[in-house]
Amino acid sequence: xLVLWDIDGTLVSAAGVGREVFAEAFRVVMxxxxxxxxxxxxxxxxxxxxxxxxxxxAVHDVTDGEAxxxxxxxALAAATDARAQWLAEHGHALPGAEAALAAxxxxxxxxxSLLTGNIEPNAVVKLAAFGLDAYVDFEVGGYxxxxxxxxxxxxxxxxxxxxxxxxxxxxxxxxxxxxxxxDVAAGRQGGSRVVAVATGPFDIGELRAxxxxxxxxxxxxxxxxxxxxLGGDRDPR
Length: 237
Prior knowledge:
By secondary structure, this protein is α/β, with parallel strands linked by helices. The chain has ten helices and seven strands.
């Protein structure tokens, strides 16, 4: 089974560092401050970094954002890496996250990786800040740096995992765990089961309405996480 974890709002709280690094990347690339304290910020939850970057550039009057995207991505990675210690001190792993990752690692045949809008370097920084990096195989993840549209990242991760492990992870054996309706939609469109956790900005009802196969209030109940992810209970309550 291939288990693909979202990061922000699902496994960790990054203490608002995302908004800071987008503003910093803008300063580095464009040579000016974005409007306001953190700029005219755009919606971030459930989206890829490239989607966010292009909209962020557009709302700050950069009409040819595509031309700046490679440099912006590099600046985003550098800004996040520079804040790794701050992130470790001010952010935190969400309750139950490490126990859930550890329990799934003990399950035979389970490969854990990521499906996240973060570019790959930032995904590594965010998990390493809280000691969660040892539980996932970064080589087979789907990242915001792999594609602009989140749903396409499911197949990206499957393809990487198939190449590395020699196993075909079909829809019944691929599970996405996330905390937003966009995570749910990505899993549905990408052809995976979806376990949603109400640890981000959306509640249980909203995640259930979005079509998740199972919805959990959080990751504290490790047994419930295992049932939901492994398919033993479609909707543990």
